[in-house]
Structures are given as structure tokens and as C-alpha cells.
Design brief:
Helix content: 25-40%
CATH superfamily: Aldolase class I
Number of helices: 12
Structural class: alpha/beta
Distance between the termini: 19 Å
Shape: globular
Number of domains: 1
Order of helices and strands: EEEHEHHEHEHHEEEHEHEHEHHH
CATH architecture: Alpha-Beta Barrel
Largest sheet: 8 strands, parallel, barrel
CATH class: Alpha Beta
Length: 245
């Protein structure tokens, strides 16, 4: 399994939200670019960057995102407020290796299908769900689409992967929803990236042993629950290795 440390941006700072709620944000760093060196080494496979201002419908932090991409020695995937072709093109031009689209997959599915064709292997579709139903617009509104239905559609469009987040667990360190993530992975034909809830190394091991492609880890790293090196070492083990030792 691959490990993707996360940097969530809000008003120019690195934060983590609890259950996706803006009024429950914890600021972890005033200068997010300074986090890159620590997060992008020791075995991390990719940085996961989210522009929360963009996700909430405000002007996107392009200059800051560009600086993070330039500072990172590993590939960067970027999401948050990317809802039209121009925004996708701009992120690719900035050097993003992967672009994450969420709300657009519900509002304008034809656009997401189009960019999947235009940028094969570089488009990730965010499946952000609460009780199995996809939420949009910075997780503020529920759609009528199930996580599995959206995942299957996205796989059909040619998405490189799905980013599955159980909103209720995001930033809460209550453990990832391994069962729901595994169910989605078994119902689609593309890779699934797990996000939300990881608080202990054992959470990473459970996702790894469920054969999930990758995991995004944020708050637990900032709270020093474990290091990038320890998380990467565990993630990269062959599923079931720990039980056999």
C-alpha cells in the first residue's frame, strides 16, 4: 500500500478539519510550504494537497499550491474547488501529477469524463460519503448518489483512482471505515485511496491487509501519533506480514 501525507490549506495555513466542518479547524502551521520537507521524505509516496478555500467556493490558493508542488520531491495530487476544465488545466500546468475532482463528478459528470480522456492516468475522483451517500460543495450538501454508484461511473470514465473519504471520520482519529472502503474497492475496476479517520498505525495495517491501494494520513502525523517513516514502513509491507512475524 502507498502512503500519501496530507496538507489541507485554509486561508494560507495548514489545517485539519473535524468531520469536514470549517468551524472545527485546527491550525497546524502558518507556513505550509515548510511542512513539505518533513512530509515528503522517509518513504512517503505522494503528497495529498487540498485547497479548502476552493472547496468552500472561495478563490483558490494557486500561488501557495504552486509553491508546495515546486518544493516537493515526490508527486503531488491536488484537490479542492476544481470544478471546470480551466481549473484542471491550471493544476496540470502548475505541475500537479494528479488532479482530484469531487463536486464536478456529481454536477457535471460529462466534464469529468472529458478530463479523464484528456489527462489519462492523472484524474482522481473524490467519493466523499456520509452514511454511504456522496456529499458535495465542501461536504456541505448531500447528493442523491451512492458512493458505489459514483465509483462505478468514475471507473467507467477512466479515472486513475477513487479517493474515498468517510466524512464522519475525517480528522476524528476514530479509525478508517475499512469495511466501506473495501466494499467500494471490490465493486470498481480502478484503484481506491482511503482517506479519513487514521489515528494509529494499526489503522494503516488494517487498510493494507484489506488490499487497499493507498491511504491518506493527515492529523495523526501532525499530532505526532507516529512518523512518516513508521507509517510508510508499515504501509509498504506485504499484506499479512505483521501477523506472520
Amino acid at each position: 500500500m502507498k502512503l500519501f501525507p496530507a496538507i489541507d490549506l485554509l486561508a494560507g495555513r495548514a489545517v485539519r478539519l473535524e468531520a469536514g466542518q470549517r468551524d472545527r479547524a485546527t491550525v497546524f502551521h502558518e507556513r505550509p510550504v515548510e511542512l513539505v520537507a518533513a512530509l515528503a521524505h522517509d518513504g512517503a509516496d505522494r503528497l495529498h494537497v487540498v485547497d479548502l478555500d476552493g472547496a468552500f467556493g472561495e478563490p483558490r490558493q494557486l500561488e501557495l499550491v504552486s509553491a508546495i508542488i515546486a518544493a516537493s520531491p515526490i508527486p503531488v495530487e491536488v484537490g479542492g474547488g476544481i470544478r471546470d476544465r480551466a481549473a484542471v488545466d491550471a493544476m496540470i500546468a502548475l505541475g500537479a501529477a494528479f488532479v482530484v475532482l469531487g463536486t464536478a463528478a456529481i454536477r457535471t459528470p460529462e466534464l469529468v469524463a472529458e478530463v479523464c480522456r484528456a489527462y489519462p492516468g492523472q484524474i482522481i475522483v473524490a467519493v466523499d460519503a456520509r452514511d454511504g451517500i456522496v456529499a458535495v460543495d465542501g461536504w456541505t450538501e448531500a447528493s442523491t448518489v451512492t458512493a458505489v454508484d459514483l465509483g462505478q461511473q468514475a471507473a467507467g470514465w477512466g479515472a486513475a483512482a477513487l479517493l474515498y473519504t468517510d466524512i464522519a471520520r475525517d480528522g476524528m482519529r476514530q479509525g478508517p471505515n475499512v469495511a466501506a472502503t473495501s466494499t467500494l474497492a471490490h465493486r470498481v475496476t480502478c484503484d481506491v485511496i482511503a482517506s479519513g479517520g487514521v489515528g494509529e498505525l494499526d489503522d494503516i495495517a488494517r487498510l493494507r491487509d484489506a488490499n487497499i491501494f493507498a491511504v491518506v494520513v493527515g492529523r495523526a502525523l501532525y499530532d505526532h501519533r507516529f512518523t512518516v517513516a513508521a507509517a510508510a514502513r508499515l504501509a509498504h509491507e506485504t499484506p499479512g506480514t505483521a501477523q506472520k512475524k
